[in-house]
Structure formats: C-alpha cells, structure tokens
Amino acid sequence: MSEVSYFKTMPVSGSELPQQNSCVMLTCILQMELRVIAFVTKLITSLGLLGKVHAASCVQSSSYVVEGDHEIEQQAGNLTFAAYNSRFAFPSEESGSSSSLFYSFNAGGIHFVMLGAYTSYDKSGDQYNWLEKDLADVDRNVTPWLVAAWHPPWYSTYMAHYREAECMRVELEDILYEYGVDIVFNGHVHAYERSNRVYNYTLDPCGPVYITVGDGAGKFCWDQQPEYSAYRESSFGHGLLEVRNETHALWTWHRNQDLYNRAGDQIYIVRQPDMCPV
C-alpha cells in the first residue's frame, strides 16, 4: 500500500476566474505526452521503488488521464488497458460514461472532455452517444470554457503519425464544432504545435485551437507551413493554460532548457460567444 498523500483539489464549477491548469500532459492534470503514463506504469511494474518515485511527482496535483497507444498492452484473451485501468481512477460513472476510456469533469469554469482514440468512436457507438449527451448538458454560464483532450492529434504537420487519426476526425469533428469546443490538447507526436482556429482543414473563427504537447524531436512533413498551423517547434517543453475570465485564456509554452520567464510560444485564446453561439 502506498503512503498517504495530500493535494489541493480544483475549484468547484462556477468559481471565480482566473484559474491555472498545467499542461505538461495528461498525468498531472493535462499532460499531453501519454508516454509518461506508460513509462511510469512500466517503472512501477518492473522497477518497483524507482517507478513509485516518478509516480509520486503527480500525487500533489489533481490528475486526470486518457489512454494512449502504449497503454493498450494486449494480453491473453484480448484483454487490453489492464495496467491503465488498475492504476488510475476515472470519474466515468459520475459523468455518465460506461468506460474508463472516455469521461468528462468540471474544474472551475472549464468543462473537460477526455476522449478515447483507441476504442470505438463511430456515430453508432457508446462513446459518440455519450459525448453528444455530455456536450448537450454543458451549461456555458457555469463552465464557459470547453476543452477536449485525446492522444493522437487530428491537425499535425509532422511526418510522424501524419493523419493517423483521420478516421476519428471524420466521425467526431462535426459534433465538437457544433457544441463550440474551444481548445483541444493532444500528444503522440513528439513535438510541439499550435493551430489557428480550424475546422475541416479550413480557417474558421468558431473552430477549436488544437495544441499538440508531445514535445520531442519530430520532423516536419513539408517546409511550407499550412494556414491552419500557427506555430511548431520540435523542442522538449511544457505548457500552462491560464483561464483569465469567461472569454480570455492565456496559453504559454516553455522550452525545458529555457528560463521560466522566457516563453517559447504564448497567445491569448479568445472566445467569441456572440459570433459563435452554441
């Protein structure tokens, strides 16, 4: 049994803004390189104490995780995600989900939707039906910000995993656009990239901003940057999302090698509910 640890919970929905959410990836609230989870899980399994030391780095934060390809770990009898399901807790039941692979939660003025890229996402499946109901139930007066996260990015200009999640995009992009998702966080690609607001590969002021924080050393697909790609860099790093009020959030990405007061990429993400009603 592990030692007892303590942490401060996220503010309740409807709390006054501003709020901060760390986006190193989805292990310590929104970590976007889910290799971290696989790494920690395998360390706990094979290296005992060393793995626990790495896992302990997250115990003082509210942690919400979403599965990546490394967590599939297919076993006898087609069993998958065994270690993932055994080591992490999910508010699935509380959010009306039938699976640990997709769920939602509120944190202050933000409604987070965690989606499964490695389970069924077609329009006749459980995840799609759950997502449609979950988004329809969001009260934007209580949680004005809507943030989604899953592992492989839909919009990426890197060679690795290029358009790998295109089938998922075709199935789910319309519903995320319809309900006005503001920001999407992804990992998988070992690089950093932030998009302009985009929908169906076209610049759209009502589309989400897509941010891939899988930081590493990826190669671009081509030298010229498409319009939807606002900034990209293959440096190791981490990011911080600061929700300042109901319409403005500050996103800052830092290179790991830089001093903290030096930002590699920084932008205000602005909601325009009058232009983009939901």
From TrEMBL:
Q: Which InterPro entries match?
A: Calcineurin-like_PHP, Metallo-depent_PP-like, MPP_PAP, PAPs-like, PAPs_C
Question: What residue stretches are annotated with the Calcineurin-like phosphoesterase domain?
Answer: 64-192
The protein's Enzyme Commission number? 3.1.3.2
Q: Entry's CDD domains?
A: MPP_PAPs (cd00839)
Question: Molecular function terms in GO for this entry?
Answer: acid phosphatase activity
Q: What class of enzyme is it?
A: hydrolase
Provide the protein name: acid phosphatase
